[in-house]
C-alpha cells in the first residue's frame, strides 16, 4: 500500500465522517472530519488551479488554526511540500527561508501583513500570496483572499501527487547557531513517526488533544497529523495562554496535551487551576528538560500522568520516552527508546558504549521516522546522517536497564581545569532545590581554570536564594569540580517556541570573564 499523509484525512472522513475533527477554542469553530476533508480538498484544488505542482514548496505563516491544518493536508494530497514558518521571525529571517527553500506560494494570516508586505517587495520565487483575514484590513491586489479562494474551488478529491518517500514538509530548525537548516521529512517518515508515538504512549480512539504549542514546530505538527490517523479531536488554541488553557480543558474535556516543564510549574500556581475542572486530562507529554519528582507527585495528586520524551525535529519527534511508572525511580532520565526507534551511544572513536557504563558519549537515533536530509545542505546531511544513524550531538549515558540520561549538548560542554562539566547535569541538580524554579548553566572564560560554570537562576515562588545557599546545595549533590562558583538571579530564561533553552542568548547577556 502506498502512503500519502493527505489521504489519511480522506480515509478518516470515510470511517467516521461526523466525528469532531477540529475545534478552535477562541473562535468556537467546529468541523467534523468530512467537513475538514472537504475544506482541505478546496485548498488542494485551488492550489492546483494556480499552477502549484508536486514538489513545489508552499510556505505557511499561520498561527494555530483550522486553516493551518487544512493547508497541511491539502499540500500533502497534491504532492507539494509544506514549509511551516515560525511566525515570530522577522521579515529578513523569513526571506532567508523562502530563498533557501525556493518557496513558490505563501499562505499567511493578516496578523503578519507588515512582514509579508516587506517580503513581497523583496526578491523571492513566491508567485502566489494567499491571505487569511483576521483583522479589518483588506487583501492587497497582489494577494488572494483565502476564504474566497477556498469557496471558488472544488471540494472533490484532488489527484494524489506524492507517495511514500516523496517530500512532505521542510521544517527549519530554530537556528541557535548560524543559519537555520531545513529538515526534510517524507510521507513514509511521518507515518512511522505516528506509528511510533501511538504504540509507545497511551493513545485511545476519540482522545481530545489540546494543540496549544505552535504548529510550525514538530512537537505540534506531528500530533496534529497523528490525530487524523487515530481518529482523535484536535482542540486548537491560537496562542498559548495558561488561564485560557484551563478554561479550554474544562469546556472541551481535553484528555491529552503537551507542555514543557516550565509550563507545568507555572500551571500549578495559575488561579484558573482552582476554578476549572481538569479531571478529563489523562496524561501530559513533556520534554526539553527532566521533571523533578516533586512536580510528578503534584500531578499524580491531580490524577494526571506525565510522559517525558526526548526527540528532535530531525527524528520527526520520536526518540526516547520515560513512562509514568518509571518517572520517580528514573528521575532525570528521558527513558528508553520508543517503539520502532533504535539508539546507541558512541565514544569519540565511534565505538559503541555498552549499557551500564558510566561513560558519556554521543547519542545516535535510528528508525524509519528520521529525516531524509537537510534541504540544500549535503555537507550538513553527511555529518548528521551516517550509516543509517542520526548523530544527535547530545552527550548521554545509559544504565544497565537501557534508560538514557542526557548530559548535555556536545557544543555546550564546559572544560574547567581539564575536567569535563556537563551543564545539564548541574542544571538538573539545581532544579531539584526548593529555592529554584529553573536553572541554566553556561561556561565563562576564567584566567585560572580556562572556563568556569556560571549558574543563572529563576527563583521558586516565595524563595530568595543567594549564591551561598545555592552553592551549599550544589556541594551536597555534585562533585566539587562541578559546583558553580558564580550565580546570577534572573527573572526568566530565554527559550524558543518549542521550549528549548537558548544558550547563545545567555552567552551574549553574560559574556564574562569570571573574576578569577
Short descriptors:
alpha/beta, GMP Synthetase, Chain A, domain 3, Rossmann fold, 31% helix, 16 helices, 3 domains, five-stranded parallel sheet, 516 residues, nine-stranded mixed sheet
CATH superfamily of the largest domain: ANL, N-terminal domain
The major β-sheet equals: 9 strands, mixed
User: How would you classify the helix and strand content by structural class?
Assistant: alpha/beta
Shape: globular
Q: Helix share of residues?
A: 25-40%
Distance between the termini: 65 Å
CATH architectural category of the largest domain? 3-Layer(aba) Sandwich
Task: Give the tally of β-strands.
Answer: 27
CATH class of the largest domain: Alpha Beta
* Mean pLDDT over all positions: 92
Determine Rg (CA atoms, Å): 23 Å
Give me the number of helical elements.
Answer: 16
Indicate the proportion of strand residues. Answer: 25-35%
What strand line-up does the widest sheet have? 2-1-11-10-12-13-14-15-16
Unreliable sequence segments: none
What number of domains?
A: 3
CATH fold annotation of the largest domain? Rossmann fold
